[in-house]
């Protein structure tokens, strides 16, 4: 039976999520993880098939990369629409409807007759996955705040790290038995399972009293209010530019590793997984780091280190020193730093606007995927090689660092006493 109960805010200092029984909290977090995985699965599962799609439709690599851009555009636009909607009508209805859109688009991708149709359907897939992403983030903010939210974002980033490991590997295995269309069959089944789990397990976390019903004008006012917060805007730009570095790796790696270094589809899947291991390790290390340092301190340190590793990547890619490992090692280190940036920047940003968590999460996600949508074809435009990928990765980290230290200035941000107490307690 679907869980239609609504979680109500507590009367004391504990957040609603901290008051849940452990078993129920685990089930909710598990489903949130599945929802968070839908976007990465949609983006990454068909990566090993990009060269095959290029040959099948007789188009250029840059044109095929636009199907990835379409997914990212859908993810960006969808969040702008679904976020405010979830603040107005609650979390469950937009969430289930969005996953349903993804399911339908996945079915149609299986029979797409040409690249243009496939690209359009990928936009729809992105729109559906956007609902899963933005509502999951809003639910985290409904249930937790401060350090507790940062820790849960770290756990969800574990899913974001595991999904890129599993997705290309699954895609590579599927390609051994069928064409690239079989990849979308698997995505259809995954969307169906996630939709069922969401309907059964997730409660409504936004009470009627906390819903915002200002309509289009109210939504515009909410977005306008967010744009007046310099720190929030800077943080979502940091998250977006860091995402650009990650998307540059995602969009360019199949061509760099398969066409440039001669790896097979299966070898690519395994090597691609190595980068996800660094991302996973960093997100889980973040939970431990939060016991000693604030999210602001971790964000500043990881950006500094990521910029350094990005510079090393660019130098080694240009000089071709070290060959394959000369590219992979600094690239994986950059991804590890992104794994530290991604939980903390959203936690700090959303913590500033709990009264409109859905809208704030929507704008955050839209910027992340919007900037990523620019990064994906940019790698192809620059040449679809190791140097092109390294330029975009380094450029993303450089821009993120400049925004962080010039606009956000994390060392000046206050830390709430409750956050410090939660850090010590955990």
Automatic annotation (TrEMBL):
Keywords: Cell membrane, Membrane, Transmembrane, Transmembrane helix, Transport
Residue ranges of domain Major facilitator superfamily (MFS) profile in the record: 28-413
Single biological process term from Gene Ontology: xenobiotic detoxification by transmembrane export across the plasma membrane
Domain of life: Bacteria
Organism: Pseudosporangium ferrugineum
Record-level GO cellular component terms: plasma membrane
Single GO MF annotation: xenobiotic transmembrane transporter activity
Subcellular location: Cell membrane
Protein name: DHA1 family bicyclomycin/chloramphenicol resistance-like MFS transporter
Chain coiled-coil ranges: none
Membrane topology of the entry: Multi-pass membrane protein
Family named by the database record: Belongs to the major facilitator superfamily. Bcr/CmlA family.
Entry's transmembrane regions: 28-47, 59-83, 95-117, 123-140, 152-170, 182-202, 231-256, 268-287, 299-318, 324-345, 357-380, 386-408
């Amino acid at each position: 039976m679907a869980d239609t109960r609504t979680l109500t805010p507590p009367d004391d200092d504990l957040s609603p999520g901290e008051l849940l029984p452990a078993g129920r909290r685990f089930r909710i977090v598990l489903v949130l993880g599945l929802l968070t995985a839908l976007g990465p699965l949609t983006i990454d599962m068909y990566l090993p098939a990009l060269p095959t799609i290029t040959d099948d439709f007789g188009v250029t690599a840059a044109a095929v990369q636009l199907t990835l851009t379409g997914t990212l555009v859908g993810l960006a636009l969808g969040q702008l629409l679904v976020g405010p909607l979830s603040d107005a009508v609650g979390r469950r209805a937009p969430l289930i409807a969005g996953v349903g859109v993804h399911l339908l688009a996945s079915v149609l991708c299986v029979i797409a007759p040409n690249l243009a149709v496939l690209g359009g359907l990928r936009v729809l897939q992105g729109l559906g996955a956007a609902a899963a992403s933005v509502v999951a983030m809003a639910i985290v903010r409904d249930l937790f705040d401060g350090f507790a939210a940062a820790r849960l974002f770290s756990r969800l980033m574990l899913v974001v790290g595991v999904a890129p490991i599993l997705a290309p590997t699954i895609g590579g295995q599927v390609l051994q038995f069928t064409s690239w269309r079989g990849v979308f069959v698997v995505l259809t089944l995954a969307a169906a399972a996630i939709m069922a789990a969401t309907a059964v397990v997730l409660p409504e976390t936004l009470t009627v009293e906390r819903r915002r019903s200002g309509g289009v004008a109210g939504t515009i006012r909410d977005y306008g209010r967010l744009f007046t917060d310099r720190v929030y805007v800077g943080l979502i730009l940091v998250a977006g530019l860091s995402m650009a570095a990650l998307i540059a790796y995602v969009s360019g790696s199949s061509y760099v590793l398969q066409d440039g270094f001669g790896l097979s589809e299966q070898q690519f899947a395994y090597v691609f997984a190595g980068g996800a291991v660094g991302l996973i390790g960093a997100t889980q290390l973040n939970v431990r780091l939060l016991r000693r340092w604030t999210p602001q301190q971790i964000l500043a340190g990881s950006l500094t280190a990521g910029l350094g590793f990005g510079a090393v990547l660019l130098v080694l890619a240009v000089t071709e020193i070290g060959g394959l490992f000369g590219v992979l090692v600094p690239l994986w280190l950059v991804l590890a730093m992104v794994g530290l940036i991604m939980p903390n920047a959203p936690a700090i940003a959303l913590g500033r606007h709990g009264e409109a968590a859905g809208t704030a999460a929507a704008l955050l996600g839209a910027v992340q995927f919007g900037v990523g949508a620019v990064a994906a074809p940019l790698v192809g435009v620059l040449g679809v090689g190791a140097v092109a990928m390294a330029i975009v990765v380094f450029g993303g980290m450089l821009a993120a660092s400049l925004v962080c230290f010039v606009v956000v200035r994390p060392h000046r941000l206050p830390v709430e006493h409750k956050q410090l107490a939660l850090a010590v307690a955990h």
